[in-house]
């Protein structure tokens, strides 16, 4: 029953949020058009529940075709691909607000694991069970990992927080979501961990290292269990 209630509440709040933020959205759209060439929205294929692909919306904060330039998928401090308006949008997280449309369409939730780019983790069918667990619920605009460290966390820790959220959701339900939403606003005002840590590695190396860190953490956990 709760997943249906959560979905209904999310859509109602998303609709209210879109109505309230409409004037701000118009100003942001105008600022983006005046600041740099390209569309107002950035649309990207992401993974949702059960590994399905959907198109996620954001206000464009980078130059056109930024994924094919510089550090690819990853965005770091002083990234030259980020536009002047985009820097402000990212610091305030306003660039994420169009995802309320995805929530209204039933593709996302207000709270849940953040959806990765569709090719970021490789073939979904071959993912280990821990990685797949976070895809048993709809992805969110914010989540437990985002209020527990955001981009300061390595990937395997983000997965652990996401899986913890999946487990807690069964018992705590909407109360858990409210706490995460409240903490999200606190983090927005603190403007913490907006950018990822630059290691100078390519997309492929960063993703491979994330998998390696995950395997190392599992081996450590198994060692503690057997000790």
Question: What report would you give on this structure?
Answer:
The chain is mainly alpha-helical and 227 residues long. The protein has one domain. 50% of the residues lie in helices and 9% in strands. The strands form two sheets. Strands 1-2 form a two-stranded antiparallel ribbon.
Strand runs, count: 4
> What's the Cα radius of gyration?
18 Å
Order of helices and strands: HEEHHEHEHH
Oligomer: single chain
Low-confidence stretches: 198-210
Descriptive labels:
227 residues, mainly alpha, two-stranded antiparallel ribbon, two-stranded parallel ribbon
In short, what is this structure?
By secondary structure, the protein is mostly helical. The protein has 6 helices and 4 strands, in the order αββααβαβαα.
């Amino acid at each position: 029953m709760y997943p249906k209630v959560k979905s209904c509440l999310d859509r109602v709040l998303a609709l209210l949020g879109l109505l309230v933020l409409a004037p701000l959205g118009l100003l942001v759209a105008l600022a983006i058009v005046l600041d740099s060439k390209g569309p107002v929205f950035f649309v990207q294929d992401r993974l949702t529940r059960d590994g399905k692909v959907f198109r996620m919306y954001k206000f464009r904060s980078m130059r056109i075709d930024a994924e094919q330039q510089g550090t690819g998928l990853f965005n770091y401090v002083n990234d030259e691909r980020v536009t002047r308006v985009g820097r402000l949008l990212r610091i305030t997280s306003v660039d994420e607000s169009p995802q309320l449309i995805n929530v209204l369409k039933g593709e996302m939730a207000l709270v849940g694991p953040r959806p990765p780019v569709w090719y970021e983790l490789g073939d979904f069918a071959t993912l280990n069970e821990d990685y797949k667990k976070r895809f048993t619920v709809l992805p969110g605009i914010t989540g437990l990992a985002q209020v527990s460290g955001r981009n300061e966390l390595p990937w395997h820790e983000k997965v652990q927080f996401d899986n913890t959220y999946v487990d807690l959701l069964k018992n705590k339900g909407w109360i858990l979501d409210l706490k995460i939403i409240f903490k999200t606003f606190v983090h927005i005002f603190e403007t913490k961990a907006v950018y990822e840590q630059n290691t100078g590695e390519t997309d492929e190396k960063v993703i491979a290292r994330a998998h390696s860190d995950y395997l190392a953490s599992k081996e450590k956990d198994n060692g503690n269990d057997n000790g």
